[in-house]
Amino acid sequence: MTAAPQHEDRRLEDVSTAYGRTDRTTPSRDRERVSYDRESVHAMLDEGYVCHLGFLRDGAPVVLPTLYGRIGERLYVHGSTGSRPLRTAQRADDGMPVSLTVTHVDGLVLARSGFHHSINYRSVVVHGTARPVADETERRTALDAIIDQAVPGRAADCRPADAKELAATAVLSLDLAEVSAKCRTGGPNDEPEDLDLPYWSGVVPVAPVYGALQPADDLRPGIPVPGYLADFRRA
Q: Are strands 34-35 and 50-57 parallel, antiparallel or unpaired?
């Protein structure tokens, strides 16, 4: 994957091991679960490919699920140029304030009491300003990154967007500056007085499963399965 063009006015020079804490990235509860470690944040982001993008539309909060890609200290999302939020971002001189969340569910935590049921999870929340990407080279690089985020190696193994398709696609960038990660691990936190209750307690592990490939009905005979899909697994 080629590197994104570097724009001096937006480039992040901070390469420290942790993101700085802000009021928006400091939780009001369960603070022991929060991390600002840069490597951990990148690992959680790289494991996923679906995010939830939150913003205000006509004064009301809106959350949209969408694909994303990461290149260094920047995330990219895309959508139709006809999409209202993307049109809003395109018109905004200073970009559009957003929050972006990526979540992985690792287990269902079953306690002896209903109150203490929970999930084991890992999540990343990014606050910042989403800006439209106008440069064609950066847009193409971003779209490749979004494809490869879901299926590494796929962007080089398909036809790139033509001029008409590129014109119909809006791309937003979001710098990783105001970021936090949060996770829960381990078993249930039952009350001591509940330990003798006759209810099963523990964790149901959760992990994604990728099934057998399903070739398109109109796939031309003789086209082999590419190597990156032969035994497809994600980290």
A: unpaired
